[in-house]
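Much of what follows relies on a compact textual record of a protein's fold. Each token is a code from a learned vocabulary of local backbone shapes. The record below shows the convention in full.
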Amino acid sequence: MELQKINCSAMARPAGARSSLKAETDSYATRTRQIAVMGTPVNCGNRGVLALGTSIINLCTQASPDSEVVLLLDNLDSQPVLFRLGKKFRPVPIVHCRLSPRCHPQNHLFWIVLMSLLYRGVPITGIRAAIARSTPWIKTVVEADFVGDVRGGDSFSDLYGMKRFLFDFLMVWTVLLVKGEIVQFPQTYGPYKSPVARCLARFILKRSSVIIARDPQSQQMAQDLVGPKKRVLLSPDVAFSLSAIQPERIELNPPLAGSVPKGVIGLNVNGLMAHGGYTRNNMFGLKMDYATFLPELVRSLLAEHFGELWIIPHTYAPRGDVESDNEASQELRDSLPPDLRQRVRLVTAEYDQHELKGIIGQCEFFIGSRMHSCIAALSQGVPCVGVAYSRKFVGVFESVGMAEWVVDARFHAQDIAVARIIALFHQRNKVRQELSKRAALARQQLTTVFRELVSQQVPAPQAAPEVLNGVGRPALVE
């Protein structure tokens, strides 16, 4: 992938300002460079979202080791969170905002929006400095070399409702008001059911300095929104770069005696699909009854395979929560007849995203309905079928040559879906080697993408201020 080149032509500088040039340059050279990241929640059970955050932080710090990453989040507090970076854990600072009336006013989203409007409308240095001091969110945006957003990977859409979309829009709008631009990390764009959502998405994308899609369909969607004058780039999903770690012990029901047997089939159950979505009324418009499809799939797989099947949750939530993969997984196992239940184990402990990827990597074949559970398999060369509830699956699978391995639950009845998965199960060994090669290539591409992205967005320490634009970063040529 080739990003736009930096325009390093010097800007005109008044003669009277030359005397302070060296001091400004020295000050800039010693400043810790800062990358602000949005859209990666840290206090949630969704390991796919956590995989996104960890991967972006790792990719940014690998590309610019002397930079500090800070998270701008809708979060309960601003306590730093430990992330596994390479072989070590590193605290990553958080600057939070909330809509709760119980939060401190300086952290309330409405206050941040109001102060951002004032910051934008009053171009007086002293007033702007006072606003930044009074509002940690704005101070962070001002000091960041660039701000990038990933929207949970697939939330640049009204797929999950307008309330969520509008809340995310307001957070991004504050960045645009203060900084004038934002970077869009690799993600899905669309679909948009509402004209309002489409209009707001266009507003943000037109003001984004870099837009990266993680699949061709999203790339085209974003390109249509911004028009021909701005280029939308393409990259693999960042979670292809996530490291896999084998947990010391895999907690299973029934417990495992000895080492992991060969030929394990992995199955991820999506609690959101099983419970009908947030509306609990077939929110995604599935053609199949997902809850009855699952036991039929397990019976058919175990009729073709004499080994074990492991059910692997990828989003943890309490019982009764619509997101709970662990509850839906337990319900699936309980629904099986005793003779099959003996061959089906449920992963019961709550592992982090690295450990879950390590567990999935031990499977011979995998079926997932959480997209990042599928990425955990694909990125390790494990043949994988994605049982999809949105178009995002096809594009990500296509990035490693596996587009035909998506079974879309919106268009396939369950008998056809089961037959298709069984057919793909018998083809698993034919694609394994090529998939491993494509996954390795995707990881290499991500390293290149972020090295080019960060190098263009974060000025080199020796860069003189006169080659920077008004927000303290190189100007990009469209």
Q: What stands out?
A: The domain at 252-437 is CATH 3.40.50.2000 (Rossmann fold).
